[in-house]
Amino acid sequence: MRLAILDDYLDVSQGLVDWSRISRRCEIAVLNRKLFSEDEAAAALADVDVICTLRERTAFPASLLARLPRLKYIAVTGMRYDSVDVTAATRLGILVSNSEVVRGGGGVSELAWGLVIATARHIAQEDASMRRGGWQTRVGFTLRGKTLGILGLGRLGSRMAAYAHAFEMRVLAWSPRLTAERASAQGAECVAMDELLRQSDVVTIHLPLAEGTRDLIAARELSLMKSDAILVNTARAAIVNQDALLDTLRHSRIAGAGLDVFDIEPLPADHPLRGLGNTVLTPHIGYFTREMLTVYYEDAVEAISGFLDGRPIRIVNPDAMARARAR
């Protein structure tokens, strides 16, 4: 059998965990490049039996799955598997598994707080100025005494609230089903989203992408923010309307944005966000730490071993099993 480990851009997968349980039974191919089109993916994966993803870097719509006749199993790294058309996989008898509940973690919220500080104090821009031989170019603002608005007070948002308290900030929070009691337990005030946008000096997003959150922050919502406020997004790019965000930043209607997620990834070299001076950009590295990648790949080795042994685990589409046996 042949296993493809996808989107391992830095060639770290083989060094982080022991794949010998798999390599004794499978030929392993590590793809360290992005598969940019469905045709490219179909050609690269045509003779693959098992795929190990890295989060949502490669999507598997029904049209691509139909072009992979040998594919039997997809091990998704991460709890969410939105990038795989599970209905189509089930119809084709392709089993799909995900990772366990995140063990440890903290990487995303730590990066988000880093983007808060970097954007508020223009760290990237001042670093660039220093390397060009320059000196001070901008005035930042102090976080102490300011208001942090958190969209999504779940596991990650709650960590952001704790960080804010350490910086002596007031915390506002909103999510579709957030109650005042839950917010209070995290030291936050539950407010309407519009009120959060109006009052906050820093707005940070920690919501999942769903039909109800796609384009949640568009031109109207951005217009509610203070002109000296900043926006941080380490969740999903599509939660913020990208055209509206670009227009807002180009005209400095808010002070800046710290972004780790983008509408196209990897971000094209000529993307207009790269040319703006009021942004801090990181290449979707919120989860990309040695610790979290180790957890993901350990889960993948366990899941793939179970599949090879005929005892698959954490299957998200159990109805595919009968179809798989019939193939």
How many H/I helices?
A: 14
Largest sheet: 7 strands, parallel
- The total number of structural domains is 2
Topology, number of strands: 12
What share of the residues lie within helices? 25-40%
Do you know the CATH topology of the largest domain?
Rossmann fold
The CATH fourth-level homologous superfamily of the largest domain: NAD(P)-binding Rossmann-like Domain
Provide the succession of SSEs: EHHEHEHEHEHHEHEHEHEHEHEEHH
CATH class of the largest domain reads Alpha Beta
Shape: globular
Average pLDDT metric: 95
Structural class from helices and strands?
alpha/beta
Output the radius of gyration: 22 Å
CATH architecture of the largest domain: 3-Layer(aba) Sandwich
Separation of termini? 16 Å
Entry summary:
This protein is 35% helix and 13% strand. It is an alpha/beta fold and 327 residues long. A seven-stranded parallel sheet has the order 8-7-6-9-10-11-12, sandwiched between helices. Strands 2-1-3-4-5 form a five-stranded parallel sheet.
Structure description:
Helix content is 35%, strand content 13%. The protein is an alpha/beta fold and 327 residues long.
Helices and strands in order, then pairings?
Blueprint: E1 2-5, H1 13-16, H2 20-23, E2 27-30, H3 38-44, E3 50-52, H4 62-65, E4 73-75, H5 86-91, E5 95-97, H6 107-120, H7 123-131, E6 147-151, H8 155-166, E7 170-174, H9 180-185, E8 189-190, H10 193-199, E9 202-205, H11 219-224, E10 230-233, H12 242-250, E11 256-259, E12 279-281, H13 290-308, H14 320-326
Parallel strand pairs: 1-2, 1-3, 3-4, 4-5, 6-7, 6-9, 7-8, 9-10, 10-11, 11-12
Helix pairs in contact: 6-8
